[in-house]
Inverse folding.
């Protein structure tokens, strides 16, 4: 069942009234509705099963029925597993996705509009959509908007070892730029004593991070010790 920030909107286009519910892992949602026409729309966030912190998402899906006419008791199944994948590809050069927005709008009666969007970062690997049926009263629109840039990291590997799958800590105003090199040293779990003992000044500190997801303290201590950068890894990952 959809969990996390997964949500479901049910809006009556006859009455211009409705509600949004957050699924929170429920197997189903039960609505008591009058007969009539409805717009059903939802976002499903699927957690990343490989993430030990439990905070990362594997995919985001948008599922909708632009017009659902209710005349009797009805069971509606919205299944992200049956949605089709959305993606972009740059032809001339390699790129990575930094930000994606899924947005929808449903208008009816010449006056009413229900719209929404969800924006996620490049940490989401998969985007999906499943829109079935058409709006016979009014209009429905759905679109996706992407921001792709040159990769922050193109390759990371250990000499004589495996090629790794790195992710940058952030893509804000201060990003990786230019060229350079520095020695890599093992700094344990990144405590001030371990950083000092490893002699990280002018080097890249390799740190084993905990599963709580926080690296701000380690980064601050490494900077104070003179490290050029921090590479963090988790055993659980």
């Amino acid at each position: 069942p959809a969990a996390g920030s997964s949500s479901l909107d049910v809006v009556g286009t006859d009455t211009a009234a409705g509600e949004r519910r957050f699924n929170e892992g429920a197997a189903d949602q039960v609505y008591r509705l009058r007969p009539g026409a409805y717009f059903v729309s939802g976002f499903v966030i699927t957690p990343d099963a490989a993430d030990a912190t439990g905070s990362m998402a594997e995919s985001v899906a948008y599922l909708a029925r632009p017009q659902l006419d209710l005349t009797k008791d009805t069971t509606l199944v919205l299944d992200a597993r049956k949605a089709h994948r959305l993606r972009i590809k740059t032809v001339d050069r390699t790129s990575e996705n930094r930000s994606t927005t899924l947005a929808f709008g449903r208008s009816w009666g010449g006056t009413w509009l229900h719209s929404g969007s969800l924006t996620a970062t490049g940490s989401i690997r998969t985007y999906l959509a499943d829109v079935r049926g058409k709006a016979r009263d009014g209009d429905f629109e759905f679109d996706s908007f992407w921001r792709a840039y040159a990769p922050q990291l193109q390759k990371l590997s250990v000499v004589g070892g495996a090629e790794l799958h790195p992710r940058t800590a952030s893509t804000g105003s201060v990003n990786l730029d230019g060229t350079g090199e520095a020695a890599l040293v093992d700094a344990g779990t990144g405590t001030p004593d371990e950083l000092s003992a490893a002699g990280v000044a002018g080097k890249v500190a390799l740190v084993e991070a905990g599963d709580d997801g926080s690296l701000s303290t380690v980064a601050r201590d490494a900077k104070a010790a003179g490290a050029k950068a921090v590479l963090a890894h988790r055993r659980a990952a």
